[in-house]
Design brief:
With about 240 residues, the protein is mainly alpha-helical. It has nine helices and five strands. It has helices spanning about 15-30, 35-45, 50-55, 70-75, 80-105, 105-125, 140-150, 175-195, 205-225, and strands spanning about 1-5, 10, 155-165, 165-175, 235. It has a three-stranded antiparallel sheet. The protein has a two-stranded antiparallel sheet with strand order 2-5. A hairpin with a 2-residue loop joins strand 3 (about 155-165) and strand 4 (about 165-175).
Length: about 240
């Protein structure tokens, strides 16, 4: 279930979203230019390795301190491949742009970073002895998905579902998209936890933690957001004939 767009017309440029995308892209490109050994060392140093905190002696040879909690944030700016970063940044653009206009740039940035850090703590809690570095912005973006769905409940999301070689494209309410997406993350997280042989290559519980953090923090940030009414317009949805 790949989100393609929403049906809200942007009234102001989402400066923070563009900046976050540029920062993630810059880090990704710099790492592509690194020798492989340096790249691996960077991932272990700035990515989140849960065992580093629960068994500090394990990776002392990487030269990092178990008292440093920066990886809970820096890990969210590292990506492991082209599809990883493209999908994450596109999803950040879809759900982050309108939220930034609603919250204002500063509050949006704080909200995003809170979801990012909380998602990493969630992953570390469920996999305390994992030696695999967890990286990527998807946990932070999960928080945006939850907050977007509740804030813009009238919005619709156009999605693509690959069915063999046939791309199925249609639109669904934002609340339905968020609910289906969240249920899938929980199911995959439970399946991975009950089947250790499957491994933990995808940080499902980081997604769950980020999503729940977004829901919990949303009322606070809406109270702190500027009192001005947000101006936005709806696209006419070519995949659904209902007017909104």
């Amino acid at each position: 279930m790949i989100p393609l767009r929403d049906n809200i017309v942007q009234t102001r440029p989402p400066v923070v979203v563009y900046t976050l995308i540029a920062m993630n892209a810059a880090v990704f490109l710099v790492m592509l230019l690194m020798p492989k050994a340096m790249m691996i060392e960077t991932v272990y140093h700035y990515g989140l390795v849960p065992r580093h905190y629960f068994a500090p002696s394990w990776d002392m040879h990487y030269g990092s301190s178990p008292e440093s909690y920066w990886p809970f944030l820096t890990a969210t700016f590292i990506h492991g491949g082209w599809m990883h970063i493209i999908f994450n940044m596109w999803t950040l653009y879809i759900f982050g742009s309108t939220l930034e206009v609603r919250f204002g740039p500063v509050l949006f940035l704080v909200f995003y970073l809170c979801c990012a850090v909380a998602s990493m703590f969630s992953h570390a809690y469920f996999y305390p002895l994992s030696t695999a570095p967890v990286i990527g912005a998807s946990g932070a973006i999960a928080g945006l998905i939850g907050a977007y769905a509740l804030t813009f409940s009238r919005a619709r999301i156009t999605i693509l579902i690959p069915f063999f070689f046939i791309p199925l494209i249609f639109s669904i309410p934002a609340l339905a998209f968020a609910a289906i997406w969240f249920l899938f993350q929980v199911m995959q997280g439970v399946w991975t936890a009950l089947s250790p042989s499957v491994g933990d290559s995808v940080a499902w519980w980081a997604h769950v933690g980020g999503f729940l953090t977004g829901l919990i923090l949303l009322p606070i940030f809406l109270l702190l957001a500027p009192a001005r009414a947000m101006q936005y317009r709806w696209h006419r949805d070519p995949w659904n004939t209902t007017d909104h």
